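Our consortium's second objective concerns turning raw sequence data into structural hypotheses that experimental partners can test. To show how far this objective has progressed, the report includes one record in full. It was chosen at random from the queue rather than selected for favorable results. The single chain below, 896 residues long, was entered without modification.
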Amino acid sequence: MSSGVSSFINVGERTNVTGSARFKKLIMAGDYPAGLEVARQQIENGAQIIDVNMDEGLLESEQAMVTFLNLIAAEPDIARVPIMIDSSKWEVIEAGLKCVQGKAVVNSISLKEGEAPFLEQARLIRRYGAAVVVMAFDEDGQADTAERKFEICKRSYDILTEKAGFAPEDVIFDPNIFAVATGIEEHDNYAVAFIEATRLIKRAMPRVHVSGGVSNISFSFRGNDPVREAMHSAFLFHAIRAGMDMGIVNAGQITVYDDIPEELREHVEDVLLNRRSDATERLLAIADKYKGDGSTQKKEDPKWREAPVAERIRHALVHGITDFIVDDTEEARQAAERPLHVIEGPLMDGMNVVGDLFGAGKMFLPQVVKSARVMKTAVAHLIPYMEAEQEASGVKQAKGKIVMATVKGDVHDIGKNIVGVVLQCNNYDVVDLGVMVPAETILETARAEKADVIGLSGLITPSLDRMVDVAAEMTREGFDIPLLIGGATTSKKHTAIKIEPEYDHGVIHVDDASKAVGVVSTLLSKERRGAYLEGVAAECAAIRDGRAQEKEGTGVTLEAARANAFDGGWAAYQPPKPAAVGEKIFARYDVAELVDYIDWTPFFHAWELKGSYPKILDDPEKGAVARELNDAAQAMLKRIVDEKWFRPRAVVGLWPANAVGDDVEIYADETRETVRARFHMLRQQSKKTGKRPNYALSDFVAPKDSGVPDWMGGFIVSAGEEADAIAKSYEQANDDYSAILVKALADRIAEAFAERMHERVRREFWGYDPAEALANADLIAERYRGIRPAPGYPACPDHLEKRILFDLLDGPKNAGVSLTESCAMWPAAAVSGFYFSHPEARYFGVGRIGRDQVEDYAARTGLSLQDAETWLSPSLAYTPERRTAPDRPADARKSA
């Protein structure tokens, strides 16, 4: 019963002046920064694409689109998601396409003006490398039946793929969702028409996408949110199973399908599926009964303990209850012929239910991880009995074996661990090699274990090159099993361009845990594997072809970018001198002081619960799970504080400094005669409009030739190395849920520690804002003076700068944090970065840089051009010459 629910793409439309009164008011008033906050909130609430529309009669739409998209480009947390450029005016669409740095989506074109204009616009969109939404319109008007919708979409598809050169994956059909239950008989079949059209489209054109505006379906019940929520959820339940894979969905107006009261669900589905002629009247008759109270919660049945043992085991697995599982497992063992039969019977039956519910979008990741804890506890009880039977494994033959590892040089594994748990819950045998695993170990293990699939994970950008190495080595050693790629810095595009060409037997990018089971299941199916791998290879080839057609280079030269640098106003501005110059060490810091500084939103994201805290606790779909997870986190956090599980450590440094070009010199003392270290900054090379500068971090430090003395800071903080040992003890006790929980909390504590240290720097150590008194929400929103960017992140993408920072601060000695060869920090729950105090200092993304800047950077840092290109590869605006050997630079660049 697996479905596409878990991979459904949500399009956020709040940045649309025609759909959001608030956004329209902001843009009409010229308050673009507040408009950016609307975009940011959408992403925090789970939007995976942002729809931007500036079509307003009193607005200069083209100028507004360009201004807003350029501002988005400088906001990494917004620019990381694709932009849907939405306009009925072609000149606005084209202006927007010129601004978007990544792959855009154009919304929309159609055949309503005929084939010639459609083809002309399609070719232009293709030239810009964008995907396109195609509405089900033609010369005869808007399609309202399934047959007409399909006919128009198929005609459009043929034109797009055969004449305009579109890859099928870049085509998104919107077959029009119209309101039902309007009282007009002709409208009764509109939902069925969309669902059937979707099914026909996906059958004939399996690689395209199908989208739609879900809220349209319930327009007749404006003012009755519970009924609308039920209609949206039920419609999605059926439409997604027909093939709908993206759409405009208000997360606040959906509910859990199984939580819709049975009476309401039956009446809603009668309307949606047009099952009876009186469906509208019957729904209207009960609608008022649900007005104001539509979220019926399923209550726990206290009598489940009276059910037969197999049902009790299934209930415990689905609900993650470990309290009675050992007793129930023992009861089942005594009734079974062999202990193995308990695993093959009630335990696997229960886990199959868990897998079905997760695949259908009816369970969420924290619940699945809890189910795994119950399963492992039960199996651990049975293993001694099976060993006594001299069973070799004691476990039913798994569906397949997957060897997983975080690549050499990288230490992050929360995401990998979650994927492993989800796969194990679906009866796959997972061999997790842990972190910092070299290629030879991964491949030796895969061969020894007779693995069916290898999975690689990584968080930092140098890990991308390690993955290329593993793929090349798999080819050299003659492997023929699929390779899965995952992790925060990975992408389908990088996988297609850099990794997939190195290996011919399947390289698949998996971007979240919910998709892993479906991918592995397909790869291990003799019937489906061949066609699936052919499709993946074709998609990768299409991405490479698209990349080859992209215009290489940057918006401006390095010389022009430097000429447009940020002006710090050094003739009139006097930088504040720190109250305490030098390093300050904190050998042990009280966790209790850090609790109030925790930003909880990323904690829920780690568990694949998208949304902002605390709103997510009241989310109609995820709220119950989020609250349960929150309770568990707060309980463990209390133990961390009360029992002093962690020993946070930190070191902070504030040094005399001045900028020399794009570098920042750190001086040994106030005489500024001896250069102690030199940081090398990178500059934006995108084309700017108006008075917007091309930033580099060095712009926020006074130039040496200005004669103005300035200062710069740096820091390293860690939650302590204890978190990994505690997590390991939980893993050994078959409690993956608590293991992941403690690691996720350690990450949050490290980030909170960075927040607290920065506050103390501003108020005490540097002391340029001693009266600052901000609430945690204001700290999270960065409503303070100064910034703390980190090496390896958008404003300073070279991880090698960490080595200079760690030399200055003596990270291993003073903070207990060391760097791997790829510049990942160990322990993993650690944060490092710089401090800048200039009142106009701001975060930005360097974006793509040209060959001229890379050559200049290599000369400044002492790296070879080839090594500079390797470390900066994600930021390059050109394709460097391919390396002839898989060896990566063993550079050990130090301070000066």
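The partners drew two points from this record. The radius of gyration is 28 Å. The CA atoms of residues 230 and 260 lie 6 Å apart. Both points have been shared with the crystallography group to help prioritize constructs.
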